[in-house]
Amino acid sequence: RFEQHRAMAKFLAATLALCGSLPVEGKWPLRGRKELADVPASFDCEMRKLAYAYGRKLLPRLGAFESLYYALDLNSDSCHQEQAKDEPVHQPATALPHNWRSAAVFVDGAKGDDSNVGSESQPLRSLQVACDRAVSSAGSTPMVLLRGGTHFLTESLRLGPQHSKLLITSYPKENAEVSGGQKLQVTWKPYNLTGGANIWVS
Question: Which is it for strands 189-192 and 199-201: parallel, antiparallel or unpaired?
Fold first, then answer.
C-alpha cells in the first residue's frame, strides 16, 4: 500500500503541475520547463506545502500522508517542512444494540484465530469467516465487530443475499481498516542523494 499511495501522490503532484496549478522550478517535479524558468523557488516551495496540506485534507484517513510528503520532496534542504503527526481519524460511532457484546462476532486481525468461537475474548482472524458465522447464528441483528488496526484480506470478500442486514463496524472507540493490499516489511536505504537528488531503494 505504501508504493500505491506513493504512486498516487506523484500522479497528483504531476497532474497539478501539468495543469498549471502547481508552478515548479526546474528540478522538481518536472525538469527543464522553459515556461517555468522565471518561477521563484520560494513560490514553488510554498505551492508544494499547500499541495501537502490539501492532500491531507482530501484524504484524512491517511493521517500524516507520508507518501505524499516524500513525493513532494518536503524533506529536502531546499524546501523543508516537518512531516505532520500521524494522528488517527476517529469515525462517528455506530449505534449498537444493548446486547452487542453477546450478539456480535468479533475479529482481531493480529491476535484472532479462525478456530475460535468468535467471542470478545476469543475473536476470529478472518473477516470472511466472521461474516459467514454472523449470518448463520440465530440472532436477529447479525453484526461483526472489528478490533482496531488494519485487517488484510487474502482474497476478495464474498457477500451475498444471505448477508443482508449484516452490520460490519469497528469495535467501540477503536479504528479498524480493511485493506486488500499486502503488508510489506521493507528497509529503505539511500541510492542517490547527490546534486539535489533524493532517491532511495529497498
Answer: antiparallel
